Amino acid sequence: MEMIDAELRLGPPGSDVNVVVQPARTAAKRSSSAVKSEASGTGGGNDDDAAPASKVQVVGWPPVRAYRKNACHAAAEAASARTTTKKQGEQGGGGLYVKVSMDGAPYLRKVDLRTYGGYRELRDALDALFGCFSSSLPGFAIAYEDKDGDLMLAGDVPWDMFICSCKKLRIMRGSEAR
Amino acid sequence: MGRGGSHAAPAAASPPWHALPDEVWEHAFSFLPADSDRGAAAAACRSWLRAERRSRRRLVIANCYAASPQDAVDRFPSVRAVEVKGKPHFADFGLVPPGWGAAAAPWVAAAADGWPLLEELSFKRMYVTDDCLEMIAASFRNFQVLRLVSCEGFSTSGLAAIAAGCRNVRELDLQENEIEDCSIHWLSLFPESFTSLVTLNFSCLEGDVDITVLERLVTRCRNLKTLKLNNAIPLDKLASLLRKAPQIVELGTGRFSADYHLDLFSKLAAAFAGCKSLRRLSGAWDAVPEYLPAFYCVCEGLTSLNLSYATVRGPELVKFISRCKNLQLLWVMDLIEDHGLAAVASSCNKLQELRVFPSAPFDAAEQVSLTERGLVDVSASCPMLESVLYFCRRMTNEALITIAKNRPNFTCFRLCIIEPHTPDYITHQPLDAGFSAIVESCKGLRRLSVSGLLTDRVFRSIGAHADRLEMLSIAFAGNSDLGLHYILSGCKSLKKLEIRDCPFGDKPLLANAAKLETMRSLWMSSCSLTLGACRQLARKMPRLSVEVMNDPRRACPLDSLTDESHVETLYVYRTIAGPRSDTPACVQIV
After folding, report:
1. Which positions 113-142 of A are in contact with B (Cβ < 8 Å)?
2. ipTM of this predicted complex?
3. Any long-range contacts for A22-27 (C-beta under 8 Å, 24+ apart)?
4. What local confidence, expressed as pLDDT, does residue B379 receive?
């Protein structure tokens, strides 16, 4: 599976050929397109579907600026999420971006909680980003850090309450979550 | 002229104009608009050199390694505005590894020391740190303009230093930078007494912004002409900001999406109706089609529209653009499709620049119906069109020939056919004939990017006909050394050449070594170069810096490599500063 291959090949930032796909960034901050491009760079991943395209991506081709890739990717994700989810009556626009970390992955991602209708869509989206729920890897659980800084298991409170209190997401290995 | 009076001049050895004081020459040179003209004047004689260099106010360092900061300060002591560019263009696409170089710090330090009256500083593709920004804030008491384009290495802390320290700043223009969000409320550090802002562009900032602080800033800066917001500003706040700054000329809207509500729509439409001076519009990320009509009242006045981040499609998009009859610049995504471009062609006859960006560049399948048809239509109907950047998935020679015939006035033609080696989709021939037509017809062409299936033949045409061409980008093209030879032995005005994934080798490089000193830089990656040729080139041309990079992950141990070893990336540029000392381990100077 392309995603796993990419992860196995990823090393610390700055020391991996996949890093070349994106211009220099600080280690702590990786937006979603960075990993997407890296996955694409190794195996032709197309992160709009679950199954990656069979085309092999070439580094730096087509010549689209990294900045533009990020912006379009974020917009496309939001647009496709909007067409498939029911709006929760949220007004006023403005994304609710939170960082998502997964144990074992060197880079964090960011997701806009407002684009999901509920926990199911969130889980699917995280699966699309990290491949954590559909692979044969041991079970993962979604946890989050709330306003008080406590680590909570996602799913207990209604969705609207969740997105108001969620500051950060963390995908934890099943053994730890227990 | 000269000393007045009508006495008989003796048969003098030196012509009378030598007696003119420097100030007269300085004044004369101030009418020369182009730096190259000033440079030519300075080369004429010593007194002109003295007058020109002392009176130079604006300086552009197109390659930060071509000269040292101290060289620049010594030669031009009265500079008030400086622009420095760093990494090669292909850095935009990830071909240059992190830590490659282009640090702004030495330039800021030299400027702080030698140009205390500096007013404007502009960096492009450079590594700018918070320390740099703090030094700028502390060193130039009349600092007015800071422009950072495609830079990285700094955070909102650096911006806070600028806001707090530069009491006369007029323009803070941040374009497509990587800015670390330290959650410092930098906007609130502009003092309450500060009112001089004319341009504020923070569209690339990812973090939140205090809207109240922004509103107060916008309200008290009555001269604000350009405001470009980031994604964090919601639609209803946009309306209230516009009401506080109706004099705005250029607006970047930031996020333009929300559920459709009639009262929000009315608020927006009313706010835009009040902006009678609005001429340039950008942003509209994630635009919701139902809100586009809120722009309708400003359409007539718009000269520039950048929707290249707006993933909106459909009839609302086309209707909106068609109302902008005075557009000179249009940047869109390929979601506009051929039929949308046909509408643009018939409505926007004053169009000068068109850019069409791919919405899904990495998808194998064609998702939008944007083909050569759209470009043909626009170039047929827009007589002033001179600059094009077009991403598409198919092209024909016939289309290119038609475009060339219709628009001999192109100055910039960049065509990117997304799949490498794509031939004419009808005849299955290479696109040599099409691009040849472009260079033969467009005698003023200054910038060209070619793509698709191309043989050496197209390079013979380019070398022979593209006399004014200054920048050429080639990828996945050509079939032998001849291709590169045609370019380097022709193209009289060539300044920048960037090549990737072409079968070009050592011979044309060495045969045309002298040409490289007439150019700013040459980039060749994934071609057929050997280390031996690079060594020879470096020996032959001491005023060129020959940089080699093989694997960005590893140090590049040149000494242990043989002449026959393959060179993955070559970057050559002329310089008077000698080899740079800040190369990372993966880059070696031969």
Report:
1. none
2. 0.85
3. A22/A66, A22/B94, A23/A66, A23/B91, A23/B92, A23/B94, A23/B96, A23/B98, A23/B152, A23/B178, A24/B97, A24/B98, A24/B99, A24/B127, A24/B152, A24/B153, A24/B178, A25/B98, A25/B152, A25/B178, A26/B180
4. 97
